[in-house]
Amino acid sequence: MAGNVPPIPDERSGLLGFLAQQREAVKIAAYGLTDDQARAVPSASELSVGGLVKHVSFTESGWIDLVLRIPPKPFMESMASYQENYRLGPDETLTSAFEAYDRVAARTAEVIAGIEDLNQEVPVPQDVPWYPDDVKAWSVRWVLLHLIEETARHAGHADIVRESIDGATAMPLMAAAEGWPETDWLKPWKPAV
């Protein structure tokens, strides 16, 4: 990831590149965590790093379903099922959450590659209370920008939750994950002994 998206040849590559960078930021926040640590809720919120990985995967998949005009599933049957979307369950692992997220990312890239015009309309479901009543359709471009924004927001949440677990912050975690050499100003994260 190296902190920045490389130069981009076109809009589509740029949108997918920035989305991929934000996905990686979510994953970096989980670098080196055990499954139990990934389930931990160490801050004032009810968020966990593993739950955030699970949530961004679920959310991206749902938006790509909208692009494909796959009718949305009922969002959640109850508040409990909604909250489960933000939790890494006892039978789930961080590895399985990453694998699911990688499959979602591959699907997104495949779907977007097959769309000729990023202005293609994505109908706004009319029975979802948090979607606007006065907008009939977004564009595929808008959906990608929204996914970047949504993923970046949750990457920030994951950073805060991670720091609450063991004090680790984004740049040292990135340095450790990518194998950067230690310098006077940046020391890659290492697990506590």
What do you see in this structure?
The chain has helices at 11-29, 35-39, 49-67, 79-84, 94-113, 140-166, 170-178, and strands spanning 121-123, 137-139. It is mainly alpha-helical. The protein has a single domain, classed as Four Helix Bundle (Hemerythrin (Met), subunit A) (Up-down Bundle), CATH 1.20.120. Helix 1 (11-29) runs antiparallel to helix 5 and helix 1 runs parallel beside helix 6. The relative contact order is 0.19. The chain has a two-stranded antiparallel ribbon with strand order 1-2. It is built from 7 helices and 2 strands; from the N terminus they run H-H-H-H-H-E-E-H-H.
How would you summarize the topology of this molecule?
Layout: H1 11-29, H2 35-39, H3 49-67, H4 79-84, H5 94-113, E1 121-123, E2 137-139, H6 140-166, H7 170-178
Antiparallel strand pairs: 1-2
Helix pairs in contact: 1-3, 1-5, 1-6, 3-5, 3-6
| Backbone structural class | mainly alpha
Q: Major sheet, described briefly?
A: 2 strands, antiparallel
Write the element-wise H/E pattern from the N-terminal end onward: HHHHHEEHH
- What topology, given as strand order, has the largest sheet? 1-2
Q: Which shape, going by the Cα principal axes?
A: globular
- Provide the gyration radius in Å: 18 Å
Question: Uncertain regions: pLDDT < 50 for 5+ in a row?
Answer: none
CATH architecture: Up-down Bundle
Give the termini distance in whole angstroms: 27 Å
Query: By CATH's scheme, which homologous superfamily applies?
Result: dinb family like domain
Q: Note the total helix count.
A: 7
**Count of domain modules:** 1
- Rounded mean pLDDT score: 93
Helix content: 40-55%
Strand coverage percent: under 5%
Strand elements, count = 2
